Amino acid sequence: MKKQSFIIRYSRPFIFAWAIAAGGVLHAEPAVTETMGSEQREQQRELFKKAEYAAKRGRLNEYRQLLQELDGYPLKPYLELTRLEQVGYLANEDRVLQFLETYEGTPLDWQLRQPWLSYLASEGENKRFIRDFRHPGTLTHRCQFIHARREEGLEEGPFKRQVDAIWQHGFSLPQACDPILKEWTELGGRTDEMVWERLRLAATSGNATLIPYLTGLLPKLQQYLGEFYHKVRYSPAAIEDSNWFKGRYPSREAEIATFGLKKLIWRDENIALRAYNKLKDSLPFSEEQLAEIAEEFAVALSLDDHPEARIWHSRVPPEALNERVLQWRLAVHIQDNDFQGLKAVINALPMAIKQGNQWRYWLARSEEKLGNDLAAQQLYEDLSDERHYYGFLSAARLQKPISLEQEKLEVSVVQLEQVRSHPSVQRAYEFIQLERWVDARREWNHLLTQLDGEEQKVAAYLASEWGWHDQAIWTLAQIGHFDAVGIRFPLAYQGILSRASQAAGIDEEWALAITRRESAFRHDAYSSAGARGLMQILPSTAKKLDGNSNWRRLNNPSVNVRLGTYYLGRLKHRFENNWLLATASYNAGYYRVREWLPEEPMEADAWIETIPYYETRDYVKAVLSYQQIYRMLGGKEDNLFEDVIDMKIVGSE
């Protein structure tokens, strides 16, 4: 008899069959439930919710009785946490310390340690506070820790150095820091240079309302500098007012002028250019400052195709070149149809940059445009077997089949059971069943810090097995394992997406690609702009689409997908069935994309490369790539990018 293999292979047909049987979501109970029926585990979940409620309401008898019925339940420690958060005083110190020791470094730890430290600080328990504090802690607790150590004999030198680090924040510090800042100041720690450094942080990347306070700490003769920084933060055109340049501190005046010019170029190009020409000979700009100004001017002027953009690109020194500048240098040459110049730029790049996918592709395009077909074909050939946007474009130009370069994710049974039995995995799984997603992700993020790369791969497999697709995708990305295509591009919510796409008259693969890019199939995803759910719908957009702006309903997959696919269909219709422009509009907005359309027909790959917003530019490339992958996973062999290379983009009359 042959030995049975102890390798589980991630088979796409096998997994997809599971997905279809489970309505698009995969589920598997953790190993701990092998001795426990699913019905009993479900009963424990209900008991857990009741016990948690009893603990929060102080119903101790009920709580203790329920606790006895939860032996072995993964979330039982959270009940103890709930109870200790309410009674964690010195009388219960032994229980608190035992809990903190048992769960040190886990999410359970800091949820108890923070209120415990706050309690110890309020009671003046310095020795206990020092014993139980763990770095980095909150800023409040860091200040309290330094204060406690100082009162317990911390020497002046280490004390001042520790407060130095606290001081260097561009935001207001909590009141708990006041005692150590007062003593630090009395010991001479708050020098004029330290005040200036913090003022710079507040002006350039922090809270500008802090600037007047810090200005008052400067010597009288320097206070105009703080006032000038504050003025420029809100009105960068103030650098045109020569009254601010008193000549007392020329290097600092040059610093403020650099900051102002970099802001002003985005608000008013003409004033910025005029101000620079006025200041360049009167202020001692350093080489670094001149490079910063040149970079910002080059990018900002390129955005509006300003005639001086090319001049400023030439002023960016080679050592200051970065992705941002190079992207716009590429865009300038494309807009000018200057492929000889573009070829020269690419060939002059450092090898590490030159070998990037983008530059290899555009070197091929340059060779093609210059009539060097053999050189272009070789470059396309090198790219065409790779699974990315430029690889798909290259394959389309060669009219050759695309290879997904899939790799089956191999996980041993032993590894799978080891990871599956990890306490954080058990707790994350139970939180998923209780639909407490924040807690589940907190446990999962902690888990990943405890695992090596191979174990993280197993964890990604496990998350995919549960149907927790966003975490499976994110985990594989963290370890750079990109070839497990079946896990990275799941057919999640396929039934919902398929029905909604059909109703909206759009391709299902397009909707899948948009959803994959927007949320990685996280149904409760939200952005800083307020977008919600699988397809990241703004409440304002939802109101326009169906008159309801309630954001909570946007976490409902059916509602979200219905609105998202309908919106895609509308955008596609408004762009005369051009799904590429609709894709850009889904990210940047319809009217903004209309502004980007060229007056003369432009090849689609060139237009995409010159999209002004880097976020939208990358978004379009990603969605096109994902759409092609989903087409192939669905059994379609055609290359969507053949349509892209034949497409011309132009504004309508």
From TrEMBL:
It comes from the Bacteria. InterPro entries: Lysozyme-like_dom_sf, Lytic_TGlycoase_superhlx_L_sf, Lytic_TGlycosylase_superhlx_L, Lytic_TGlycosylase_superhlx_U, Transglycosylase_SLT_dom_1. Keywords: Signal. Residues 499-600 form the Transglycosylase SLT domain. Residues 419-484 form the Lytic transglycosylase superhelical linker domain. Residues 1-28 form the signal peptide. Belongs to the transglycosylase Slt family. PANTHER family: SOLUBLE LYTIC MUREIN TRANSGLYCOSYLASE, SOLUBLE LYTIC MUREIN TRANSGLYCOSYLASE-RELATED. This is Murein transglycosylase. It comes from Idiomarina piscisalsi.
